[in-house]
Design brief:
The complex is a heterotrimer of chains A (328), B (177) and C (372). Chain A has helices spanning 2-37, 53-63, 74-92, 109-130, 134-165, 170-175, 195-209, 234-259, 273-291, 299-327. By secondary structure, chain A is mainly alpha-helical. Chain A has one domain (65-327). Chain A is globular and about 65 Å long. Chain B has 177 residues and is of the alpha/beta class. Chain B has one domain (4-152): NADH:ubiquinone oxidoreductase Nqo5 subunit (Beta Polymerase, domain 2). Chain B has five helices and seven strands, in the order ααβαβαββββαβ. Chain B is globular, with a radius of gyration of 16 Å. The longest helix of chain C has 29 residues, at 98-126. In chain C, the strands form three sheets. A three-stranded antiparallel beta sheet of chain C has the order 1-2-3. The radius of gyration of chain C is 21 Å and the shape is globular. In chain C, strand 6 and strand 7 form a beta hairpin. Chain C has 372 residues and is of the alpha+beta class. Chain C folds into two domains: 9-45, no CATH class; 54-207 and 284-360, Cytochrome-c3 Hydrogenase, chain B. Classes of the chains: A mainly alpha (328), B alpha/beta (177), C alpha+beta (372). The interface between B and C is large, with 41 and 46 residues.
Chain lengths: 328, 177, 372
Amino acid sequence: MSLTILNAVIAVVAAIAFAAINAAYLVWAERRGAGRIQRRPGPNVNGPFGLLQPPCDGIKLMAKQLMIPGGADKALFMVAPVLAMAPAIMSFVTIPFSDTIVAHSMNIGVLMIFAFASMGAMAILLAGWGSRSKYAVMASVRAVSQNISYEIPMLITVITIVMMTGTMNLAEMVASQTGGIWHWNIVPSLSSPLMPVSFLLFFICALAETNRAPFDLGEAESELVAGFHTEYGSMGFGLFFMGEYANIVIGASLITILFLGGWGCPLGLYPGVWWFLLKIYLLIFSFIWIRWTFPRTTIYGLLNLSWKILIPISLFNLLLTAGLLKVF
Amino acid sequence: MTNDNVKQALRDLFPDPEPVVEAATDAEAEGDKKKPAGKKEEPRINGLIERDHAVHGYDIDVQLDPGELLAAVMIINKAGFFIESITGVDWIKEEQLEVVYDFSRYDFDTCRIVIRTRTPRSEPKVPTISKIYPGANWHERETHDFFGIKFDGHPHLIPLLLPEDADFHPLLKDFKP
Amino acid sequence: MSGPIHIRPDETFTLNVGPQHPATHGVLRVKMEMDGEYIVKAETVLGYIHRMHELMGENRTYPQVLPNLSRLDYLGALGYTHGHVLVIERAAGIEVPERAEYIRAITVELNRIASHLFWFGAFVMDLGGFTPLMYAIQDREHILDLLEAVTGSRLTYCYYRFGGLYNDVDDDFIAATKAVIPMLRKSLKKYDALVTGNIIFMKRLEGIGPISAEMCRKYGATGPVARGAGIDFDVRKNEPYSVYPEFDFDVPVYHECDSLARYKVRMDEMEQSLRIIEQGIEKLPDGPIMPKKKPKLIKPPKGDYYQAVETARGSFGIRIVSDGTKNAYRFKLRSPTYSNMSLFDEACEGMMIMDALAMMGSLDLVIPEIDR
């Protein structure tokens, strides 16, 4: 009994550590990647390749005074960053890195991740509302409307996959895709001919859900200064920052699990955690790549994209798959 | 430099609303009135003078009373000129403030018209042209900042470049910082 | 986005964009009355970097005030000093040697490209794309290096003198300029591929921020803003000065009146400036760079002199009322951005804030030049 509790604690701590290390070092990767894209070195002073930059940043952020603007709602203001980071970490608990490495395998893993992901919108709303700044309020309203509009096509796509695999357990979803690239969900099959489109759609939604450029309307720095975290400094800002990167890892993991066969090898050989990590980091790199290449969309362009294009396509795909599953 | 058509149109247009401006004075005033070699300066008589673009950078130089300003600007507006700038000059010796309006054209027949009007220094007052040219709004506010010239009917005559509570006019010649 | 906007005046709030705001590129402040994301009314508040250059122009002698002109617009400073030397040369009747005129044209055009490049980067950054700024700055660096070699400074040039230049260009400058031109051409093509063809970029600018020709006229907008509204107006062509009549170049005009048109005008202008530089180097005559006969003390005769030049931002006018002494009696600067910005209040009404700020970016604001 006590051993299982210990096991669970170790698993959860490992998940948190993975999230935290990823969040810290993705900042480094993002800055190095941006530097490479923009023909400049990026952080390269602290440690080899600037690898000590994230701990330095962390120490700096933690050493700073936490300023609360006058007239702000203190409780909400303090809670919001925690609420941004905590659900992101919690989601890691159920993500299977390989057939053995998973903190807690759940039957409703997909549902849990989306339940926690939608709490991210709450954090942004509270941050915007609590900091009593017009820019923050406008940004949080934007971010929440964006999150809501993109959760719908995302979930519809997930339902399609759940129908195909017949499970909501993430590990079982991966298991159903084992045996090489032609078994992955991204590859169109007779019963689901539109899967590549779904993948693209899910990818766009994941970008939008994580508030990344070109959908970073919540922190549109040239319009709304810094968006919902305008008033945050010190570790409050740090938590938002880390939460964003943790969310990126979750988004990439979900895409990998749902579409790219999780820990499976493209050729069906040597499945293992390395394949999973390789896939998510490739996806994360493409996130970074997109961010530093594209300008920002407009809020109405963003909402139009979701409601007029993505949702109809995902609904059509759902119906088509449902029908074809009956046939084949 | 100037297209003859434009010039002619303006010549025709000017005496109409301003019968005060005598055509005869125009002809006599041709050339540079500003340089009466060595003699004592006499105030310029209202009227239209043609200038050499190569020397002065503008073609038509009109001086009129503040009361006739709106009529003249309306003519210029109708002729399709754009507003370039409005500024003031402080002629402290003559106890007068001059307001200078520059208008120019977008088409290839560049013709810059300068309109000058003088107003007493003790109570400087000129009608606003921001109703005709909305762009004059800022220029007039700036002129009000620097010279204290009141633009009658201006919708929003508060300091533009100077601080909000500025009660000084730095370009007046008797301004002491 | 167009469409009916239902404004409930009791539900608006005031948003202060600036004086410290990333989109204003300086210390400009726009008080916006907002209805959600829509702008109901905007009022620009200026003067945060007002330095009263016009009074300095009256207090100092003509040569002393020359460095002031390059503090107006820190991106395209040469155009402004060019205006000043031209108006003094016009007033005092100083002849300028041909070689000096050509070098002036070459350096002004180089500066114009540098200014447009920086604008390009900053504008795309306004739209959320950060990377082009780095590319543009890198290209601009080559031009700044060229100009530094001849003028001695990188930003606030004081290179022109009444009647000529501070020093002559050498063969190295000519060779380096010749090398930079094809490099810039290549970069311009790359920008076109990277930015202009981008669907998000197009969607954000096409049909957004309309500024009509009539509006330009009423507000006195010049430069790329007017040319983006279909007005074929360029002081270099309309009111030729210096040696510009000798050059063969086009004035890019777009009739769409939107932010994209203004963007395209500036991108095309860089190409035209490159053409001018090429021709200038080709035709560059030998000879002195300062006139043989030049008055020791600059004392223009009594009178009122005006000179317009085409700077990177539009028609810059400088008026000097001389009373025959070594100081100007009145020194008026007509800055192009001042007029271009004045139409923003009217143009942005009813727009969404992000479109309005994109339009503001397309006006190419340099705040010290507005405030003077």
